Amino acid sequence: MKSVYVAFQFDTEDFVTPETDDVLLELTDILDRFGVKGSFCIVAEKVRALKRRGRIDVLESLKGHDIAYQSNLHSVHPVISEYLKDKGWKEGVEEVKKRESSGLELLKKVFGMNPSAFIQPGGSWAPETPYALKEMGVPVYVDGIFQDSPIWFCGSLCFRAAMGFPEDSSFADLNMLKSRFDEIYNSKINGGLITIVMHPCKFVTEKFWDAVNFSHGKNPPTEKLVPAPLRDKEKIKESLQVFQTFLSFILEHPNVKVVTFREVARLFRDPEERKLTLDQIFTLAEEASNKNDWQIIDGTSISPAEILRLFVDVIADYLQRGLESKSMPIRFTLGPASKPSETRILENINLSDILEITRSAKKFMDTYGRVPSTITRDKMKLGPGALLEATAKTILYYSEHGSLPERIRVHGLPDIPAVAQRWGLIKRINNQWRWVIFPAGFESKHIEELTLLQSWTMRPAVLVDN
């Protein structure tokens, strides 16, 4: 069995209830005694509250661990999904940067390190956030619509916890927790990541601080915020002992290595440059000619957007000029920024149209770094799915005949990659809106649409073999 990497995620967010400060000292003490580090995912307003309360001891204890960022204000309205509800892609990215920069800079200043990851607050999902935070120097996105195995989305390494530790656990719960961990551990026969999430504040409080103050769209002023009701001290002590026993149990597993989110980014890092040979590109074209999906070619992961850009580059820069390159770089490319127009194509597209369509697509992607929503040529309108099919079939013909085709037959692949249906992305997005902090009936069809469009950027993250 290969190494199983275990990350402990501590969502550190209650800036209202002072009694939640001391538990951070107890948790860091437990981790320190076992010689492991946790990833403390800190809301910037929690740092401001600790400073106001003079809790330098808590801030110093956290410096011995990994620091991640869980937004500036977490549940204070408007939350991320609310302020991005109707924004376009570019406008939304800039809005995230504007609203999150002060909190990010505060964490850098206080802890002396760039946060390792951004943790989504509650159900506040929007696809602009992972891309914006990656551009701000935070390469990992945790929670949201993702699964427990890391995946690339919008250039960010994304995943969510495989299990949670119930902060109100008693010793009666311990066997259930052990069984659940073993079930996940035994499923990682080829190695992988297990992230375990918990909320330090909930060791101490009966309810979440934000549910008490900000549920269903409520937004009281700072002076009217109410601390969360507290648990009995003996129960708090027992829950911390259960966590300590559970941690000891996990460390007894022979192949477990405890890591932080900072180390996860290194374990799943891409090579400095991803390249494919022409023969590999021919294999890729065969797969992509009838399927809009991510691919793994000889261990190299490549998204649908990157496949399309690679094909366009190959046709425009090499095959059209009768040249053959030994290898071609894979270039990160975003998905479309708006919904494609209805595709209108002639079933048979001649070579001159293929080349003109390819040139137009290349110019657009080189200029904007994203897949075009629609490419128009005379009476034809090709959405990104049809464009992927046309370029794949052109390269596939070249691989079989050594020349470009006089014409190709295109039926039109779906404009949304297959992963959207395979993962049930629409359901995953809509589940986000169940967060108690949102006003009743909150939803965003616009965020849903942009997420589906950016599924063009999704591809598996490959574990680097240490």
- Main β-sheet, in a few words? 6 strands, parallel
N- and C-termini, Cα separation: 14 Å
Strand content: 5-15%
The figure for the number of domains is 2
Class of secondary structure makeup: alpha/beta
CATH architecture call of the largest domain: Alpha-Beta Barrel
| Unreliably modeled segments | none
The level 1 CATH classification of the largest domain is Alpha Beta
DSSP, total strands: 19
The CATH topology of the largest domain turns out to be TIM Barrel
Task: Describe this structure in a few short sentences.
This protein is α/β, with parallel strands linked by helices and 466 residues long. It is built from 18 helices and 19 strands.
Indicate the topology:
Layout: E1 4-12, H1 22-34, E2 39-42, H2 44-52, H3 56-62, E3 66-69, H4 80-83, H5 89-111, E4 118-119, H6 128-135, E5 140-142, E6 151-153, E7 156-159, E8 163-164, H7 174-186, E9 192-198, H8 200-204, H9 209-214, H10 233-251, E10 256-259, H11 261-267, E11 275-277, H12 278-288, E12 295-297, E13 300-302, H13 304-317, E14 327-329, E15 348-350, H14 351-368, E16 375-377, E17 380-382, H15 384-401, E18 407-409, H16 419-422, H17 425-432, H18 445-454, E19 459-460
Parallel strand pairs: 1-2, 1-9, 1-10, 2-3, 4-5, 5-7, 8-9
Antiparallel strand pairs: 6-7, 6-19, 11-14, 12-13, 15-18, 16-17
Helix pairs in contact: 1-3, 1-10, 5-6, 7-10, 12-15, 13-14, 13-15, 17-18
Written description of the protein model:
The structure is a single chain. The chain has 466 residues and is an alpha/beta fold. It has two domains: 4-269 and 455-460, Alpha-Beta Barrel (TIM Barrel); 275-415, no CATH class. The protein is built from 18 helices and 19 strands. Strands 1, 2, 3, 8, 9 and 10 form a six-stranded parallel sheet that branches. Strands 4-5-7-6-19 form a five-stranded mixed sheet. Strands 11-14 form a two-stranded antiparallel sheet. Helix 6 (128-135) links the parallel strand 4 and strand 5 (140-142). The longest helix has 23 residues, at 89-111.
